[in-house]
Write a structure and sequence with these properties.
single chain, 288 residues, mainly alpha, 15 helices, 0% strand
Length: 288
Amino acid sequence: MGAGIRLIGSVFKLRIALAITLSALAGVAVAPGAGLPAWKLAVLAFAVMLSAASAGAFNQYVERDLDARMARTRNRPFVTGRLRTGPFWPCVIAATLALAVGAAALTLNAAAALHVFLGAFVYGVVYTVWLKRRTWLNIVLGGLAGSFAVLAGASAVDPGLAPAPVILAMVLFLWTPPHFWSLAMALHQDYARAGVPMLPVVVGDALAAWVILGHTVALVALSLVPAAYGLGWIYLSGAALGGAYFVAKSVALVRQPGPKAAMVNFKASLLQLGLLQIAAVADRLLLG
């Protein structure tokens, strides 16, 4: 039973799906208005989680040849044969996404459903199929996947989209490249061996570290702007503290580019995003 749960969690990348779901809830939190009743909030979380999970499973199914060439991913179930390829899994993935989009359309609104779909489409098709093997810009455009989660949450409250959630979506867009480039630098040899043109592989660790720092400074600065659109001191404190830590670790990466500092920066990006999401939700719950 436990092994089966771990297998499903691995295939559908449920940890990543949870982070994307929290981004959708942050989108609800920063949207002005009355918010959502609890049952609609639950449907939104369910839809975004399923959408992200379907994209994660599709990514693993399509990239099984790349995964086999990387130490980090060579034990994934489609690589090892624990799960067999064939028409069954594409059908399951498509049905999962259809359920997610349908639930959002029927209980929220068309705009929320569209953003739920676009998040999965960008990660599954634009990033995984079209861009990942072709260009270092893969994760730059792929960063829109997280942005659509924020917009799904905000549009469930108001399809018109106020400035604060749009800015937060832009923050997610800027956050994704330094997050993944830090991981790619930490696993430089893995990505080079697999032939994936991640930025550190293409331009080297030293230059990539400067690009990561530039993205980090930009996203942290932008993350403070929603405070000018009604968010309170809890959000601002979370954005400032998490942002300062991420910038500090990115500066350290520039000073000593390489796998060790890159992994520290990768973890700093997760902390920064988590603080931002939690602070946005707490600000709404505690300060209204």
